[in-house]
């Protein structure tokens, strides 16, 4: 629809009338292929919905985000497809309100500070990664901290997984010593 050389499901959505965007004339030479691709995608989606059901019967499907234009109005296993107001902007809204995170997953050898120092180092490193990814340094908090002792080594060693997250912040230079 936008002049690329590889057909996509977005092209299929336009070719089958599910979406109106780009230049529909570009789909005409590949119309059969695009329609077949959309039928195959519909079948895969119906199968996926059946796999996640926890009980028999049809479910209501709420379609949001950019990919929702690929979903047909009727689908096996679905009683109703609902597209709320502004359904196509859900990805942008989600991205705007999401937390920014950073994580660490590595092996730490206990040094002079012992276990606490290793946990603190991992937490700080996760925090620094979150801030480097765009989190506001004042809002970053540790959200996950997991340690797994490695008993087969001769010196005290542990695998630490740490995750920190915070609200999206402004774009400025950050130094860990600032906070």
Give the helix/strand layout.
Blueprint: H1 9-15, H2 31-52, E1 59-62, E2 78-82, H3 90-97, E3 100-109, H4 114-132, E4 141-149, E5 157-166
Parallel strand pairs: 1-2
Antiparallel strand pairs: 3-5, 4-5
Helix pairs in contact: 1-2
What does this structure look like?
There is one protein chain. The protein has 179 residues and is of the alpha+beta class. The chain has four helices and five strands. 31% of the residues lie in helices and 21% in strands. A three-stranded antiparallel sheet has the order 3-5-4, with helices on one face. A hairpin with a 7-residue loop joins strand 4 (141-149) and strand 5 (157-166). The longest helix is centred in the first third of the chain and has 22 residues, at 31-52.
Question: Which sheet architecture does the biggest sheet show?
Answer: 3 strands, antiparallel
State the low-pLDDT regions, or none. Answer: none
The mean pLDDT is 87
Strand order of the largest sheet: 3-5-4
Query: Judging from the principal axes of the Cα atoms, what is the shape?
Result: elongated
SSE topology string: HHEEHEHEE
Number of strands: 5
Strand residue content = 15-25%
With helices defined by DSSP (H or I, 4 residues minimum), what is the helix count? 4
How large is the radius of gyration? 24 Å
Strand-pairing-aware structural class = alpha+beta
The N- to C-terminal Cα distance equals 49 Å
Helix content: 25-40%
């Amino acid at each position: 629809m936008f002049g690329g050389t590889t057909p996509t499901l977005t092209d299929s959505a336009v070719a089958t009338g599910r979406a109106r965007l780009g230049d529909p004339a570009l789909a005409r030479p590949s119309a059969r292929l695009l329609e077949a691709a959309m039928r195959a995608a519909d079948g895969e989606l119906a199968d996926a919905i059946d796999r996640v059901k926890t009980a028999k019967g049809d479910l209501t499907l709420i379609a949001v985000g950019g990919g929702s234009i690929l979903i047909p109005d009727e689908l096996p296993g679905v009683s109703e497809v609902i597209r709320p107001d502004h359904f196509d902007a859900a990805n942008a809204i989600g991205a705007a309100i999401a937390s920014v995170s950073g994580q660490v997953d590595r092996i730490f050898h206990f040094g002079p500070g012992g276990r606490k120092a290793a946990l603190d180092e991992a937490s700080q490193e996760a925090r620094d990664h979150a801030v480097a990814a765009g989190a506001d340094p004042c809002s970053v908090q540790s959200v996950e901290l997991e340690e797994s002792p490695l008993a087969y080594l001769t010196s005290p060693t542990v695998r630490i997984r740490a995750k920190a997250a915070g609200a999206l912040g402004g774009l400025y230079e950050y130094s860990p010593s600032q906070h």
